[in-house]
Amino acid sequence: MSLSGAKIIQPLCIRYPDMPVISDQAANCNTTSTPFLGSTRTLRRIQSVSAAQRRPASAIVAVADVVKEKKLKSNKNHLLTKEEGLEVYEDMILGRVFEDMCAQMYYRGKMFGFVHLYNGQEAVSSGFIKLLKKEDSVVSTYRDHVHALSKGVPARAVMSELFGKTTGCCRGQGGSMHMFSAEHNVLGGFAFIGEGIPVATGAAFTSKYKREVLKEADCDHVTLAFFGDGTANNGQFFECLNMAALWKLPIVFVVENNLWAIGMSHLRATSDPEIWKKGPAFGMPGVHVDGMDVLKVREVAQEAIGRARRGEGPTLVECETYRFRGHSLADPDELRDPAEKARYAARDPITALKKYLIESKLASEAELKAIEKKIDEVVEDAVEFANESPVPSRSQLLENVFADPKGFGIGPDGRYRCEDPKFTQGTAQV
Amino acid sequence: MASIFQGIGAATSLSSSASFDTKKLQFSSVRSLSGKRASCVVMRSGGVKMDSDSNRIGGRGDQLVTNAVATKADNPASSTASKPGHELLLFEALREGLEEEMERDARVCVMGEDVGHYGGSYKVTKGLAQKYGDLRVLDTPIAENSFTGMGIGAAMMGLRPIIEGMNMGFLLLAFNQISNNCGMLHYTSGGQFKIPVVIRGPGGVGRQLGAEHSQRLESYFQSIPGIQMVACSTPYNAKGLMKAAIRSDNPVILFEHVLLYNLKERIPDEEYVLNLEEAEMVRPGEHVTILTYSRMRYHVMQAAKTLVNKGYDPEVIDIRSLKPFDLYTIGNSIKKTHRVLIVEECMRTGGIGASLTAAITENFHDYLDAPIMCLSSQDVPTPYAGTLEEWTVVQPPQIVAAVEQLCR
Asked: How far is A169 from chain B (nearest CA, A)?
């Protein structure tokens, strides 16, 4: 496990990488409150455990125990049904193939600027977002293509946006780092790290407001905020953890800890690298999960999203994951140890899920191949669509600056600038 | 600093004269403009514009009132129907506007530090939390960047938050959210999300508040595309602009001034909403156009009194809309007077005056008989000492001297 590279003194509470936080071994069985994440009171115990006592990363027994008690799935032996398995698999394949195609298109000069690919982290996106309803919201960072795809934004719309075409989900005005979809409640797409977290907090606030002030009694919409390990050192992160816990907002903070913020190793940037611990400091549960295993992520996500939906407040989930490519397509990626990359490549989440589905007889090789083929076609079609789409015309230049274009003001002739015919042509002086 | 309340003749309501808490002076001298017909546009509650002869004025269809200084205190056209209106202080006018909008639309909410139980640092939100609850008038922790971002996220999802900066200067901490998200999200999302927030708070140079509490952020925010900025200066326009800002689908920054909260004025009883993009004619004149906003309006009007006694006839316009500029009202004035003086509280470098100078030069150069003069605050962190502070902002004698120079 890559974190063992540094000598980490165990802090006040135990936390095994793949086990939920529990007060003592027996307590997780019978409880009225959720045993899985516990409450903050269980986290006060002082115990020191040396690194040697940590379970190996691949043990999933403990999580499965908890899951079985909760009877999440009707299938008594498997962690998810066949339909769910195929859905998740398809989503992950879509993410991977799409991102690979982005790399190709970038090097062919179809898209420009900063493009950040998600290869290797698909388990987090699929594990979480496939559990959401359409009305739930997702807020991401610049590494947002796959979050948008998982949430339901069509591949065509995302690819067109990347090509800068007017048929893109943001009319070509946002680009790779600003994927938005009002229909699918994807609230961005942000270029500066950390600035999406308050927006996510606001969306969660609205959900609570709708329920309590506007009396929409069944409004239980949840917001997921995705961000990285680098962001977990940013002020906005802490400020929002505080507010979300204070007001019990229906939000899940998902840290995609891929250990690297461009070239800055997480261990070199963070005084205490275990990010999940920052949750309890603010009064919410903090959970660590193996982000390369979509089933584990899904189980944690189920609980965290359920908590939020029930009005029990926020959760901080740290997913240990890895990006197979560089930070962006412009990153030469020279600082990361090839051995580390190889270790994580061996834990490729798609390969792992495929293996699980086949071994547990939930799907056949042929079915999975069919999905892969289908996705290939979807992505090819997206590229074709984007290629053939028109570039934005000049008239689009001034259109969306203001929701109410009167904001451009009154010109010397007494008319509003937006009433000038040249405004719609994009050539008006504003 | 009590001097700002002396000799201020501006900010008249439609019916009776303005009075001020401290000095209670009437300024009939300013109003005795010979041969001037008061052009009063009365806004009926139905939103139909009439001129003083009750002729309907076409136009933008927005509810507009232009404040003119009434020539006679009992000008019948300037009284709004049969209601005499009610008197209140500027902060109460802001609250009244806010409350009316909260009553009207349940999605309107307030968030900021001490806006709830404390009632706001300048009491603009007093009583609202008791009436509407702690969620609708939200006391936030001290985290400007995050709660501004939270307001933006809420706005994207359908609410209409009013975000208060306890002092405008604190919004520097929220610059990330204001610039990136407030200004840009509507555009980068291709028009999918609108951000109908109002960001408001007290700013400007106060009474020895020190450098950091005396900032004028309008100059920093003016370049951000996608936002609008307005500055209120009277109870009448404070209420009207507050309501307009809340109803606008654009993000609007409403600049209030720390020293103006206790101005008293009589405002109409019936509902009115002002136009965010329009400037306000404070005092029509012939010789020189003086463009100003916020607190400097009062310094200008004080100087105007002196100028009138010296035989000048300044036209004073409160530009109100700092971004975008109302080039129509400003232009018409320049075409009449051919001389422009800008009086502002912003710093000299890169302030609103600098932008206004550029805009006027670009658009109305041919109409100018003299170079544009701009009086701004010194490029100095506002000192604590009273004397030094007085010298950093523009004072009425400087305005008088500037006009005299312009009109030579």
From this structure: 7
Helix (H, G, I), strand (E, B) or coil at A315: strand
Residue A172 with chain B: CB contacts under 8 Å:
190
Looking at CA atoms only, how far is residue A162 from chain B in angstroms?
Answer: 13
Please tell me the predicted confidence (pLDDT) of residue A43. 35
Residue B357 pLDDT greater than 60, yes or no: yes
- Residue of B109, B146, B185 lying closest to A239 (CB–CB): B146
Determine the pLDDT at residue A428. 75
Mean pLDDT calculated for residue range B340-361: 95
Catalytic site residue from B144, B164, B256, B345: B144
Cβ–Cβ contact B327 with A under 8 A? yes
Active site residue: B213, B257, B287, B299, which one? B213
Active site annotation includes B286: no
Contact A410 B277 (CB under 8 A): yes
What is the C-alpha separation between A289 and A254, in angstroms, rounded? 10
A129-143, B7-21, B162-176, B186-200: lowest mean pLDDT where? Answer: B7-21
User: Cα distance from B289 to chain A (closest Cα, Å)?
Assistant: 16
Going from the C-alpha of A57 to that of each of A15, A19, A37, A68, the distances in angstroms are 12, 10, 19, 20
The pLDDT tens digits for A323-353 are 999 999 989 888 999 999 999 999 999 999 9
- In single-letter form, the type of residue at position B135 comes to L
Q: Cβ–Cβ of B157/A414 closer than 8 Å?
A: no
Cβ atoms of residues B272 and B247 within 8 Å: no
Asked if B213 is an active-site residue, the reply is yes
Checking if the pLDDT of A55 tops 70, the result is no
Domain range annotation of chain A: 82-261+270-388, 396-427
> Is A242 close to B363, i.e. CB distance below 8 A?
no
Q: Which of A191, A402, A406 sits opposite B186 (nearest CB)?
A: A402
* Mutation target among A137, A400, A413, A417 for the B interface, most CBs of B within 10 A: A400
The answer to whether the CB atoms of B191 and A399 lie below 8 A apart is yes
pLDDT of residue A77: 60
CB atoms A198 and B109 under 8 Å: no
> Which residue of B107, B187, B363 is in closest CB contact with A412?
B363
Task: Tell me which CATH homologous superfamily contains domain A82-261+270-388.
Answer: Thiamin diphosphate (ThDP)-binding fold, Pyr/PP domains (3.40.50.970)
The span from the CA of A403 to the CA of B193, in Å, is 9
pLDDT digits 0-9 by tens, A101-128:
999 999 999 999 999 999 999 999 999 9
- Which chain B residue is nearest to residue A194, measuring alpha carbons? B146
pLDDT in tens, A146-157: 999 999 999 999
Spatial separation of the C-alpha atoms in residues A357 and A271, rounded to whole Å:
39
Looking at residues A24-33, what average pLDDT do you find?
38
Q: What ipTM does the predicted assembly reach?
A: 0.82
Tens digit of each residue's pLDDT (9 = 90 or more) over A63-106 = 433 444 444 444 446 788 999 999 999 999 999 999 999 999 99
